[in-house]
Specification:
The complex is a heterodimer. Chain A is mostly helical. Helices cover 70% and strands 0% of the residues of chain A. Chain B has a domain of 172 residues: Rossmann fold, CATH 3.40.50.720. Classes of the chains: A mainly alpha, B alpha/beta. Chains A and B meet through helix 3, helix 5, helix 7, helix 9 and helix 11 of A and helix 1, helix 2, helix 7 and helix 13 of B.
């Protein structure tokens, strides 16, 4: 107790002293560490350097203490120490260095071996003295150092250096010239551009494109800072040079269009649209959309069919991306293009700019095309049409359709599909009508849409569909009823249908009840097993094998062994395995149940089913069960796959079980693929040990 | 040091070739490249050049080879073993001996027969090669993180924008259905107003190349042009632990787990919030760094970033309270997503469907497919350059905050750190001569 008190007391005292005094640098200790590291070399332990760095880091937020650290670093830097230590010190100075560091670093610039170290620090030191020093050394330095200095001035964006750097852009040494150009591009001021222009004639031909690239970069920076006239002038100079590559002129045109007044941009684009230069024309097409210039878009739309396929695609894409003026009309007219690529681009554009008026042409396109890609794109466009009037328009169109008529059934199907995918509730009645009286394809799509739209509250309106009892109707009923999250109560709308129903309808209802798994309907199905009608008995049995919950698991297990026919035993066993897999029983229990199920399997096919399930429950028991099957030739591949899958999941936790099992797997002549994966797993387990 | 190597490689001549050879057509795509489904003749395919053939480059190469409307015509690497393996792989695939090889990317960029390039290099090389590709008019599939430093990212984005380049970042999670669905849930307001995002990333260092601890200096293997491998990075002697695959654990070449993964899970966080062009305005955090050994990137870290849009993002590696992946937390629930998994609260969100007036994010069969489709249509890809730059920005800023141990404030518009010149300068670093951007 006493001891704790004093510890607490001193703790508080130390804390208070830190608060009041702040962290201070022990310059002597820092110097001593640096002295010890004087001969430090790459490849040696850097623990001592870490200690030095941590001492400096501890005072990062104290300018006074940092100045002390800087002084100690400079002292050692200027002494006779190793290259590696100088490298380390310059890295420290790159973070904490000030004007005080500049003279010492300037000293390193004289030697090409150490110049890069100095530049590393100088490039980051936030003081104009660093710029001055870099500039001063430009003329006198050796080529590789000069390149580094130019790079540093560029990275620092030293605005005052543009005039001094520019002559180097015309240097006969290409590396120097290219670096000078890079530096001017990074500085990017009007002065940099002007200084470069003065040198343009003298720049080596091979570097001319790069020089124009730098001018463009300067122009972009003017544009970004709102100096449009200056930017336009620079862009115009590059654009006007017809001997430059299409790439540079396109880039210049793009900038120019953004810099000049819209009307002037229109005139320029309209002029170029009529030109022969495809690349320039394409820039105009794209930027007319991006800048949303109606006159140009209109003209491009008129010309579209005469444009090459790729220009049409790009124009349509740009219209959609920018949601530009005339995008819908242009895309609609492109639906009749002969090129599938153009039609696809038009459909994609309509999916973002289309409105209710696009419904019929889109449905028609989807219905009439023989290309899967186009059908899917048209269906997606119908599904995505952003116009809020679209849903009501689809419902109105469906109201007017005579679903018994065969003509136009493909187009009708597309409308039904769109209504379902978009969730158009107001179209429920016509869709239900289509499901009742339509032709086979129309009915099929109508039921798919009803499945998307209908909920439990709609079932009573749809039960008349059960008269046909086909699989699609049953699926629809199950989907609608399953939208109620709780299983209990799902069967309620269906139970009254059994009263007085014929065998066909009864069997259909049994099937629905089995899939819904409402516990309130369980007794109905069990009773069905006692039916005098063999078909209904069978229907009830099959319905129970589809039961989604755990309520009939034990019955399935019993029937796996005692079923009156092999087919029933097989069905019951498969249902049993599924129910165990899906159950929420604790993992060890699930593992032992599945392992035990292996012995109950009526045939080898069912053993394979169990083996496939074992990997879901990785445990010692399931692993043993799978390993036990490695000796059985007929199911060996499935056993091998199960062992591998279980071990992949268990290997980090239980490498001892898994190593042994994987070795047995490898001894059982697995396929090349399994063997490779098993060997990799074994190697990883051995390595991790 | 570097000068001699560059002289050997005839740097000056090549630089001239590259610059003079800027004759690409990024706004233009050959009509022949607009192939018909399943019927693309070999001459009509998009031609692909691949740079960086080790590891991720090899995986990307396979993805390009699997697409029938493109044709890999050249490979480039400074490790001759990687180069030869890649050449053989390509030739085996096409059943000929036509694949060209390069050891200097500048020569490949000057090849006018190449339409697009795939870049998979160490981070410190990302910007140099990508900017050269953009200036040569090649469309680009490039790996994440976009660049090694934030300043390089801006220069690259500007070049890509200038020349109308189609860019796809290797942030392939955007092409996966579970990530897309998670983002659609968030974008369509299913969890209400998002006030917090948790991004869980890996921690530690993984020895991908089996070279951990091999730090004794020695001559590089004959197949590796080590001086060029170092490129713009500070000079350092060769040792196996420095190079292939494990370079990412050294700050001179990579950014550790944080920068390796920021282009995935932070990228997804932004995508979900429809903030592909946003950056934090404030960030602070801490990291744990190895005290010894060559590998020096943070092994455990935790960053808190504030966005002007009114939410906070925690980015953490090695902290159990932050689950791996991306989790958006809103006023009405949360959504969590990672590779192959998706979860939400309330659970019913997992069954949600989106109406026509809601946001539907673009679908892609796969990430390379999306890139090639966009090369043809000039549509923006799923992971464009500016997006990748902004996805990496919290990582770049986080590194600075961690290394300086203080909170930093950032202006997303000017991309400058405010009121802290030292921190701001750490957003770039020196290039070793003769490299410049």
């Amino acid at each position: 107790m006493k001891r704790s008190f004093w510890m607490l007391f001193f703790g508080i005292l130390i804390g208070l002293s830190n608060v009041s005094l702040g962290v201070s640098l022990d310059a002597a200790a820092l110097r001593a560490l640096l002295e010890q590291s004087r001969q430090y070399d790459f490849g040696q332990s850097r623990r001592i350097l870490t200690d030095i760095e941590n001492q400096i880091k501890a005072v990062y937020n104290s300018p006074e203490e940092l100045a002390k650290a800087e002084a100690v670093l400079l002292e050692v830097l200027q002494s006779d120490c190793s290259f590696a230590l100088k490298d380390f010190i310059c890295r420290q100075l790159s973070v904490i260095g000030s004007a005080r560091s500049v003279p010492a670093l300037a000293g390193l610039l004289k030697d090409p071996k150490t110049a890069a170290l100095a530049q590393y620090a100088l490039v980051r030191i936030p003081d104009a003295q660093a710029d001055k020093t870099l500039l001063e050394h430009l003329a006198s330095s050796e080529v590789s150092v000069r390149i580094g200095l130019l790079t540093s001035l560029g990275l620092r964006r030293t605005q005052t250096a543009a005039e001094a750097i520019a002559p180097y852009a015309a240097d006969e040494n290409q590396a120097v010239a290219e670096t000078a150009l890079s530096a001017l591009g990074q500085i990017g001021t009007s002065e940099a551009a002007a200084a470069l222009e003065k040198q343009m004639e003298k720049i080596l031909p091979a570097l001319k494109p790069r020089a124009y690239d730098v001018l463009l970069s300067c122009a972009e920076k003017r544009l970004q800072s709102g100096q449009k006239a200056e930017a336009a002038s620079l862009f115009q100079k590059v654009y006007a040079k017809k001997d430059l590559s299409g790439l540079l002129r396109s880039a210049a045109l793009q900038g120019l269009l953004q810099s000049i007044p819209p009307e002037q941009a229109d005139r320029l684009m309209l002029e170029e649209l009529e030109g022969e230069d495809a690349q320039i024309r394409t820039v105009c097409l794209l930027w007319a959309c991006r800048l949303n210039r109606p006159a140009v878009i209109q003209r491009a739309g008129q010309k579209m069919s005469s444009l090459p396929e790729w220009e049409q695609v790009q124009f349509l894409t740009a219209l959609g991306e920018a949601k530009s003026f005339g995008a819908k009309e242009t895309a609609l007219s492109a639906l009749s293009a002969s090129s599938p690529e153009v039609v696809l681009a038009a459909l994609e554009t309509l999916s973002v700019v289309g409105d209710a008026s696009c419904i019929p042409p889109l449905a028609q396109t989807a219905a009439q095309t023989t290309e899967r890609r186009i059908r899917q794109a048209a269906q997606t466009a119908l599904e995505r049409l952003p116009d809020p009037q679209t849903d009501a328009a689809i419902a109105q169109l469906l109201e007017k359709i005579d679903f018994t008529a065969e003509a136009q059934s493909a187009q009708t199907a597309e409308l039904l599909l769109a209504a379902g995918r978009r969730g158009v509730r107001e179209a429920f009645s016509p869709i239900l009508k289509a499901a009742s009286v339509g032709s086979r394809p129309v009915r099929r799509v109508a039921m798919e849409s009803l499945a998307a739209l209908a909920g439990p509250e709609d079932i009573s309106r749809m039960t008349h569909l059960l008269e046909t009892s086909d699989a699609e109707v049953i699926k629809l009923m199950v989907t609608a009823a399953s939208k109620q999250s709780e299983r209990t109560g799902r069967a309620k709308p269906f139970l009254p249908l059994l009263a007085g129903a014929g065998p066909q309808k009864t069997a259909a209802v049994y099937q629905i009840l089995g899939r819904l798994g409402d516990p309130d309907s369980l007794e109905v199905l069990r009773k069905g097993l006692q039916s005098e009608n063999a078909d209904l008995q069978e229907a009830a049995f099959r319905a129970l094998t589809e039961w989604p919950g755990p309520e009939v698991t034990e019955e399935m297990k019993r029937w796996s062994a005692e079923g009156k026919s092999e087919s029933r035993r097989v069905l019951a066993f498969r249902a049993y395995v599924r129910m165990v897999r899906q159950s929420e029983m604790p993992l060890p229990q699930k593992a032992s149940t599945l392992a035990e199920a292996m012995g109950l399997a009526p045939r080898e096919e069912e053993k394979k089913v169990v083996l496939a399930s074992l990997a879901d429950v990785p445990s010692e028991q399931t692993l043993k069960a799978a390993v036990g099957c490695l000796t059985q030739e007929s199911i060996r591949p499935e056993a091998q796959a199960a062992v591998l899958a279980i071990c992949q999941k268990l290997s980090s936790e239980h490498p001892e079980w898994c190593q042994e099992s994987v070795k047995k797997l490898l001894e059982s002549s697995p396929s090349e693929q399994i063997a490779k994966a098993a060997q990799e797993l074994l190697n990883a387990m051995q390595k991790s040990r | 040091m570097s000068g001699s190597a560059i002289n050997r490689r005839d740097f000056l001549r090549n630089a001239g070739i590259t610059a003079a050879g800027v004759i690409g057509f990024p706004y233009w795509i050959r009509p022949s490249a607009l192939g018909r489904e399943g019927a693309v003749s070999p001459g009509n395919r998009i031609t692909v050049g691949c740079v960086g053939m080790g590891w991720q480059g090899e995986a990307n190469l396979r993805a390009f080879l699997a697409e029938s409307d493109c044709h890999v015509v050249a490979v480039c690497d400074i490790d001759r073993k990687h180069l030869e393996q890649a050449r053989r792989q390509v030739n085996r695939h096409y059943g000929n001996e036509d694949c060209k090889t390069y050891t200097d990317y500048r020569e490949m960029m000057a090849d006018p027969t190449i339409d697009v390039v795939m870049l998979a290099l160490p981070d410190h090389w990302h910007a140099l090669v990508a900017v050269a590709a953009a200036r040569a008019g090649k469309d680009i599939y490039g790996e994440k993180p976009l660049t090694h430093t934030l300043r390089e990212g801006r220069i690259l984005c500007d070049a890509v924008q200038r020349y109308g380049i189609i860019w796809q970042t290797g942030s392939w999670q955007r092409s996966e259905s579970n990530f897309r669905f998670a983002c659609e849930l968030v974008r369509n307001g299913r969890i209400g107003r998002v006030y917090m995002v948790e991004v869980g990333l890996p921690s530690g260092h993984r020895d991908f190349a089996g070279t951990q601890g091999q730090e004794t200096m020695g001559p590089p293997p004959p197949e590796l042009d080590y001086e060029t491998w170092l490129g713009p990075a500070p000079w350092a002697p060769y040792c196996p632990a420095r190079v292939h695959k494990n370079w990412r654990w050294i700050y001179d070449y990579g950014g550790g787990q944080l920068m390796d993964w920021v282009g995935h899970h932070v990228d997804i966080a932004h995508w979900g919030l429809n903030l592909d062009h946003a950056s934090p305005v404030e960030i602070e955090g801490s990291g744990e760094f190895p005290k010894d050994g060559l590998w020096n990137t943070a092994t455990r870290y935790r960053l808190t970033a504030k966005y002007a849009e009114g939410f906070e993002m925690i980015i953490a590696g090695g902290h159990d309270d932050i689950r791996g992946g991306t989790r958006w937390i809103g006023t009405d629930g949360w959504v969590w997503v990672t590779r192959g998994q998706l979860d939400a609260h309330p659970k019913r969100l997992l069954q949600e469907r989106f109406g026509p007036s809601e946001e539907h994010l673009p679908r892609a069969a796969n990430h390379v497919r999306n890139f090639l489709d966009c090369v043809k249509s000039r549509r923006q890809t799923l992971a464009p350059c500016e997006t990748a730059h902004r996805s990496a920005t919290p990582g770049h800023l986080g590194q600075v905050a961690m290394l300086l141990g203080r909170k930093i404030r950032f202006d997303p518009k000017t991309e400058k750190i405010l009121n802290d010149e030292t921190a701001d300068r750490m957003l770039s670093h020196s290039y070793r001569s003769p490299w410049s951007l």
